[in-house]
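Support reply, case 0932

Customer input (verbatim):
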Amino acid sequence: MDTKQLKMDMHVHSRYSHRPSSWVLKKIGCSESYTDPAYLYRSLKARGMDLVTITDHNTIGGALEIAHLPDTFISEEVTSYFPEDNCKLHVLAYNITEAQHEDIARLRKNVYELVDYLNAEGIVHAVAHPMYSVNGLLQRVHFEKMLLLFNIIELNGARDTLQNTIVRQITDTLTRAALDALADRHDVAPRGNTPWQKCLIGGSDDHSSLYMGCSWTVVPEASDGASFLAGVAAGRTTVQTHDAGPRTLAHNLYSIMYQFYDETFMVNRWIKEPELTAFLMDTLFPEDHELHDVQRLAQERRSAGFSTFGAASIPDQLLAHARQAISAEPSLAERAHRSGMGVGTGESREDVWMEFVNRISEMIMRQFADDVITRLTSADLFYLFTTIGSSASMYMMLSPYFIAYSLFARDRQFALDCLKARNSRSAETGAPDRNIAMFTDTFNEINGVATAIRSQVAAARLTGKSLTLINCDPGQGPEANVMGFEPFGEIDLPEYPELKIYYPPVLKILDYCYRQRFTHIHAETPGAMGLTALAVARILKLPFYGTYHTSLPQTVGALTGDTQIEDLFWKYMVWFYGQMEKIYVPSAMTGRELVEKGLPEDRIVVHQWGVDTAGFTPDKRNGFFVNRYQLPDSMMKLVYVGRVSREKNLQVFEKMMRRICRHRDDVCLVIVGEGPYLAGMQESLADLPVVFTGYLTGDDLTQAYASSDIFLFPSTVDTMGNVVVEAQASGVPVVVTDKGGPSENMIDRKTGFVLPADDTLADRFADAVLHFCDHPDKLAAMRKNARQYSRQRSFEKSFLSFWNHYGVSSH
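Our regenerated output:
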């Protein structure tokens, strides 16, 4: 024993309190198993702890089992309550007697009485994990009362590293005046002679034996248990804590469950593959476990006639995918073994385990998603419900991570709130910096939604705002303000061959969002990434906002001609957007439509998206069509830019052009874009002056806009029509319908015309074009007006307006 200083982990559980009272280990001949308190004693001594105590919840049973061993004393973790509102807290009481334990059990319902008793008895005690809400009732007032009641405070090895850092910051800066102010505010007398001087201790709070001895307290010049505790009471401590996070807690939960099932039901009996068994042992058992001892223990239990865990009871799907994961990636087992043996690989067991769980969950999710798509496309609704029911395996696999991230997010925010209050109470009303995660299913594709999102990202860069675009695309390369995740599967959309739905790696995205400390989650699309955004927001307890870009139900209805499917999509959209605190819409008409469908009006924010007025400009007018497509410069060029699909109402162009051509021979229609209706449109317009350019991007697109004369957009399903604003920025008047958002993104009869979307739409479009042909002076005036209007819609201004709509968040 080192007489210069002593080191101990002051918060370790034997799990004694979790066993039924009738379950005595010696009855099944496994007193040397990993659940035995004596095992904890040996392990802690082997890990460099000079003293050993066990702090089980409200029992000293585990501590008594090792009380005869050297360098031990009896302790417990006491569950106590603030009597005014029943908020739970945990109190660590050290070096107590059995009689004192009985007194503590009687007094623990009232923390004030408990603390006074511990002080009167001279029992060294501390408040454990003071920023962890044990029963969900913890508020800042309780933490402030803890500062008044306790002079020894634990830095907990199972809690968030940030939380421990904040506890240290608050206690290090605590003054007598600040503590007196707290005493007056809460009418609680501070305990101790110098209550503003706090002592910090470290404990692992380990329930699984994975992390015991990873956090500890050192007292210099201590030579035995008595002098060690005297040093703690005097505040002569230094503390080492393990850097814990949600991965740590989840790893503990998996370990506890696996150890329990292995103890009780011999789950390993049903795992035939030695590689998988070894992997589970290396990742879910303590570092110093011996595999042959555990196998021997299982054999003893079978010999004793214990009930077994039937193979049919094990989720076959989980085991099958676990076998597949280990078989597909043999290095996982080797990495687990090296990290489990403490070999310095730079990789922890919790990291290896998370990768393993992620792989299995992705296998299950891929199979689940594929089955759902198959059932939907075959209209097999009966078996669809069976498929959805099987998703329980996926939830079972991931639930410890969902729980862990949720708890850590809650506690981290609580710690930040406490720190803010201590630094400056007036600062609570100030708006913090916003850090927004924007999720999208489309970004690199060529469509209006992707264009609007790219402008958001570009504006965030220019304005220096903290916004990160999160997408799932195998082709996503490094880009500022963009985080792309590799999908683990994909779905092809028959009507949208240029657009795929990718399966996002939910667990990886959740972990990323937690580490980035986002304050808001924003969904730009209602697909797989939108659902992932919702899950992340709920788990991390963050505000959930979104944008309604596309009239998806109407689009689906137009494509399928099936009103029942359209109604089904409306139900989904109302449910999805109903989860949001704010819903950005690009037009008042779209907002009214959503309200009519049942969404709350007070959540709707009408926000018109901006346009890159530097990129889209009349200065790009350069005879693009003359040089590229040999169209005469004198010819009036009508242009449509967008997806070539029937839901865009492009059928009107045939009748429109036939009427125009009866009156003029100097008008040409240019279709910029591609889509499922392209071949049909080319056939119907084959004898008319029409040019199909296909997709255009970059300078080709901006020059095509600026070199046109009139922009035509007959769609009735677009919520905004980003191309309408781009055309005006290019100095091109627009002709749109009165249905959807485009009519609100121009000025009727000043920057173009808004026409009724009725059966005469083709004739009305033709009349508008002929009017421009006959009045070139009006066309010239509208060109100037269009450009001037668009200047007010720069994407920087639009983005700042979007940013300022975000409410003040305490996150």
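We compared this against your earlier run and they match. Two observations from our side: The longest strand covers residues 76-82. The two ends are 47 Å apart (CA to CA). Please reopen the case if you see a mismatch on your end.
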